[in-house]
Amino acid sequence: MQQCKVGREEEGSSSNWPESAAFLLALQDTLIEELLLYLCDNQSLLKALNKRIGEGGRAMLVGAPDADDLAAAIEILQKRIAAGTRTLLGQRKSASRRTSE
After folding, report:
1. pLDDT at 101 over 80
2. Angstrom distances, CA of residue 45 to CA of 11, 62, 64, 79
3. What is the reported pTM?
4. E strand or H helix at 18, and its extent?
């Protein structure tokens, strides 16, 4: 069994590795021809993807702690775009738990 620690100390303070890995898994588990609605509570992932996709996206992945996952996700997104399939990404707010007294 192989273990891997995930967290800010291991990947660096700006790491989106857990979020980008989850997004990549969602892309891999969805057929290219199927609509995908992906909601996350991390705006950093959406900003990282926005820099690298769409018209004029030229940001480089060099030095990004999650570069492998982002590159793989972008490759799948390009295939989905070529197939004319919609991929919707959105941010949802995390539910906060409040206790009443």
Report:
1. no
2. 15, 16, 12, 20
3. 0.70
4. helix 17-28
